[in-house]
Amino acid sequence: MELSRPHRLGRRAFSALAGTTVLGLALGGSVSSAALPRPGGPGPVPTGPPPGPPAPDGRHHRVALDRYSLLVDGRRLALWSGELHPFRLPSPSLWRDVLQKMRAYGHNAVSVRLAWNQHSPAPGTYDFTGVRDLDLFLRTAAECNLYVVLHAGPRIGADVDAGGLPGWLTTVGARAGTTDPAYLRHADEWLSRVNAIVARHQFTRGTGTVLLYRADTPERADLDHLRERLRADGVEVPVLHADSPLAWEEPERTRDAAEARRLHFARLAHGSTLHNVHMAFGGTSWGWLPAPSAPAPTYDPAAAIDEARRPTAKLAPLHQLGHLLRHVPDFTRMTEAPAIRAADARVRVRRMANPDTGAQAYVLRNDSAADVTSTVPMGGTEVEVTVPARDAKLLATGLHLGAGRKLAYATVQPMLALSVGKLDIAAFVGRAGEMAHLVLDCPDEPWPTRLDEEAAWTFDHGKLHVMVPLKEDRLTRLRVRSGETDRTLLLLVADDAASLRLWPYETPSGRILVRGPELLREAALDGPVIRLTGDTVDERELEVWAPPGITDVTWNGERVQSGLGRALSLMTVWPLPGVPDPVLPALDGWRRRTENFECEPDYGDEGWPVADRRTSHSTTPVPDGQPVLFADDYGFHYGDVWYRARLTGASGLESVSLAYSTGADGLLMAWLDGEPLGTHRPGGAGDGKGTWTATADLELPRALRTRRGEDGEPAVLSVLVRRTQHGQDAYRAARGLTSARFEGASPEVRWRIMGAAAPDPVRGPLNHGGLYGERHGWHLPGYDDGAWQPGSPAAARDEEPRQGVTWYRTTFRLDVPPETDASVGLVLDGPPDRNVRVQVFLNGWNMGANVGGAEGAPHTFVLPNGILRTRAAANTLALAVLSDGDTAPGPGPVRLELLGSAAGGVPVKPVPSPGRRRG
């Protein structure tokens, strides 16, 4: 991305500098001369168990690095971070839900970006409450035992309007990303507000789990300034920046599981132990949040956890790799090993080795369009492996599996290796339909016991060969004993689907492993009882491997009957229950009202700002002889903007040319004396920086070319511009009208402008724009729509086309049981080519806009619990529909759809959604 790019030193050059000496991460990531290697200095930190789960434990912690990995209190840590933007999930209760899922799916850290524009509606004004409560988010992450990697910007990119910079910054003459004092004054104020919160949650102080701070510092002078800022604010955790010895890479997004494997295995093969999944949870670009690069409400639909908080097909390899890095320490100290080649050149092989344990890892990559079966030299043996088309495999040799047993080689990937009491457990994963072949070096002849019918084995010359055909959503278990040790090895072999129901968990009394449910959220040992909480969707077996002395199991607070199984586990007698799907109501009782009163010639605009400025801080030039019409210059930074011009001396006017500038999917509508002149949309691909410019040449209907009446009243030109978003890299480019030209007359023109009302104190500055209904609270709960006409969005499709804005409102109630977590969406069922724009408001919160007629336009809006009242409470749904004059003013049928449900979930508090006061 634009910042925190990989360090300029190559891996070999950095290794030569670092030697085997541990380097402390100094503030700003620089390496002091005292940290450089000395002759006869200490050796590297050996491979060993990772540090325990992070928590605000009140103890001071030391964070350092060497050329292999991060070091936390002298233990190696492979960071497996997942990115989550709290501002894209406007329900603080659900932060815990997603963070618990990330931890369960193998992440040990969450990467967080903060959008300045979410917190600052005006210079010197900052809000860290409600859905912007950073302190609450950091506390929740710590309670979920996740490290935090924090990126406060000021510019964060992230496909956010202006890259996260506040709209008001366009008007103060500050040049972002420079050492301009005007900019630094505002940026410092923002960072100081953030740092005051971050300082209370630093892992190094034992008061939280903030582990690393990412810096927006492309230039050395900026970095020096940042160091001073952080030091003054009490931030002492290590800082990652463009020249950090340990690079924070921004991997591209991946579309599916195979692409995710290729990307992350390749990074592992290059020696990276600082991983980030972008995005672990995508969420919603609600309101006017998205940049032109992400105009759709759904952000990253291919994320591992989707917008409805459900696992996607891409999750399995990330889940497996996360737990591998956590539970197989060999992977925290790997170095490049001599190259080997597969017999078939279409399979490319990279090999790594751990100098402490002798374990080796192999990344096999097939970029061809066909599955390839080839032999690969691994562990002194030619091993036949099949790599699917455009996919990759991660294999290993030499892993210690306990009691002298070692993995000679395997054709499937290791996922975890852990010990529970006198039981050593090793799990391996592959794709359904393949044959898994595991070979173990056993010093003594083993006594295998088949626990599931798929497993077969042979023992020959000190090697145990295990063969397992992988079936869909099937786990195969094999118990291995011998007479020379009292420790038992349990082999688990699973396909991708079954691996997603394997849940290792670390407790203060030791590790446990749970199999069966769709999610394990938490586990606690309480005397002889293990207390588990989690989610189920279907009926599931529950199997638990726990430390000695555990005899009873509870699930979500209820005791479940269990007994000792053949796999030395606690097995429930009856399966855990699934969840019945909640019944959703039909959306009826709609009421509707048309607006755009602003286009009428007698509309009272006396309170509107006069658009008469002559200079601007915008990068867009002000046309000669014309006033500044740019919306930002008058304080209107988000949403729709209205213009009204009184044209004196307009008799004979034949046409109007209106130049305008927008983000993606902008448009312009114009009226003269209340008569529509037409709708215009910018075409082409924009300027490449997020701005589309166009000129609407609008001819007047013949009836309007001669002014009615001889009273000398000026004509009134009304223009609505859907200005949409600022570009991430050109945030000062104009939005709204830029100039006007008239043919057939040369009228005297006086402009006024109106946009969004004062920012909503709860929902924030990006929630609403300048439509009449928005300015007057038509989107809010409690608005009295009793005088509106009955009328549904579906019925409107049979009406005459209309240019302008039509509103629809209804209320509905849900009654979801407290023990059920239901994700609900709003579906617009109209044909995708219907050329209307629909803004969706739920309880006053702007869930985003649907752009009809656009390829791939979204038709389902996820309604997050908390904003959505699911417990027998009323919800207000409002739709603001823009139609272009050629299309009926309605989107077609609208309905609720159940996107997913589970028995379990987290307690959800209603998100404050203040309504319009009556009277």
How does this structure look, described?
The chain is mainly beta and 919 residues long. The chain folds into 4 domains: 63-248, TIM Barrel (Alpha-Beta Barrel); 398-572, Sandwich (beta-galactosidase, domain 3); 613-754, Jelly Rolls (Sandwich); 763-904, Galactose-binding domain-like (Jelly Rolls, Sandwich), CATH 2.60.120. 11% of the residues lie in helices and 34% in strands. It has 11 helices and 52 strands. It has a 6-stranded parallel sheet with strand order 9-8-7-6-5-10, covered by helices on one side. It is elongated and about 110 Å long.
Number of helices: 11
CATH class call of the largest domain: Alpha Beta
Question: How many angstroms does the end-to-end distance come to?
Answer: 51 Å
Instruction: Give the fraction of residues assigned to helices.
Output: 10-25%
Question: What value does the Rg take, in angstroms?
Answer: 31 Å
Largest sheet: 6 strands, parallel
Question: Can you say what the CATH homologous superfamily of the largest domain is?
Answer: Glycosidases
Low-confidence parts lasting 5 or more residues at pLDDT below 50? 1-41
Q: Helix/strand-derived class? A: mainly beta
Strand order of the biggest β-sheet = 9-8-7-6-5-10
| CATH fold call of the largest domain | TIM Barrel
Number of domains: 4
CATH architecture of the largest domain: Alpha-Beta Barrel
Question: What is the approximate shape?
Answer: elongated
Keywords: Glycoprotein, Glycosidase, Hydrolase, Signal
Organism: Streptomyces coelicoflavus
InterPro entries: Betagal_dom2, Betagal_dom2_sf, BetaGal_dom3, BetaGal_dom3_sf, BetaGal_jelly_roll_dom, Galactose-bd-like_sf, GH, Gly_Hdrlase_35_cat
Family: Belongs to the glycosyl hydrolase 35 family.
